[in-house]
Design brief:
single chain; 148 residues; alpha+beta; three-stranded antiparallel β-sheet; three-stranded mixed β-sheet; binds zinc ion
Length: 148
């Protein structure tokens, strides 16, 4: 699902809904609003945050619907979830893949391009036959300001 920056978010949502339909899914109002909320947030929202945003305009959409739709989007590769720390997972659109470096002291999250993890990934695969998914969990550590 490509999302060129020139696209408006509603065009991008339309493109994703077209992908959804092509995969046998239905483009419901709840799904459109959920995708819109994901775009408008720029990522880093929990399922509960997204439900609150969707419910601001559609109070009848239950949080269980939001969870179910996020699961289906994930199965179709439209979104992925990440754990930044001990709290609930956050959701991203797959059109913006990246990993996270999170400061265990102040909670600052730095978005890091996937290449940052490529050397680690290659070593893990060569030595252990293990395929790392750097998007799923953040790398925890100490940020520049906290270390200084
Ligand atoms: Zn910090
Ligand atoms: Zn992120
Ligand atoms: Zn997970």
């Amino acid at each position: 699902v490509g999302t060129p920056p020139s696209q408006t978010s509603s065009e991008a949502v339309d493109a994703i809904l077209a992908t959804l339909r092509a995969n046998g899914g239905r483009a419901t109002t709840a799904r459109r609003q959920l995708l819109q909320a994901l775009f408008d947030s720029g990522g880093h929202r929990t399922a509960e945050d997204l439900a609150t945003e969707v419910q601001a305009s559609s109070p009848d959409i239950h949080i269980s619907t939001v969870y179910r739709n996020l699961d289906e989007f994930e199965r179709l590769g439209i979104v992925f979830h990440t754990h930044l720390g001990h709290g609930p997972a956050i959701y991203h659109l797959s059109s913006a893949p990246h990993g996270h470096l999170v400061c265990a002291n102040c909670g600052t999250a730095i978005e890091a391009a996937q290449e940052l993890f490529s050397e680690l990934s290659e070593n893990a695969e060569r030595r252990f036959g293990f395929l790392i998914d750097p998007r799923h969990f953040a790398m925890l550590g100490c940020c520049h300001s906290c270390a200084g």
